[in-house]
Amino acid sequence: MSKPDTERPSLLEVTEYLAIDLDARRWQCRCCGHDLGEAASNYKFACLVADRDPREVHPPVIDGPYTFAPDPDWCRIVEFYCPGCLTLIEAEYLPPGHPVTHDIEIDIDSLKKKSA
User: pTM for this one?
Assistant: First the structure.
């Protein structure tokens, strides 16, 4: 993968690691330019996913029943990585069984009108 052309006017930087190509209407990794699917859908479904044990990420800081570490019966950590360069794009804390969130929805038509 080649690094995305950040000088292209059709490339909108959305987050530190995500961009949308307004002309192609596609998500793109800002680090390597990897295509992450249609902009109308959830980019997370094109990512590599790691479902992490919260006790591994946040080890207990004290002994006993209340350890300040998230309980895996109540919390899971889901990490989303770019398949092209393995950059961590997003991490979510979700209740077990909760679907992945669709947290970014962009009105591309309005943005294209603004940039024209």
Answer: 0.85
DSSP letters of the chain? Answer: -PPP-TT-TTEEE-SSSEEEETTTTEEEETTT--EEEETTS-GGGGSEEEEE-HHHHS--SSSSS--SS--TTT-EEEEEE-TTT--EEEEEEE-TTPPPP------HHHHHHHH-
78-109 confidence digits (pLDDT tens): 999 999 999 999 999 999 999 999 999 999 88
Q: Could you tell me the residue ranges of all domains in the chain?
A: 11-99
Give one word for 37, left, alpha or beta, with left for phi > 0 and alpha for psi -120 to 50. Answer: left
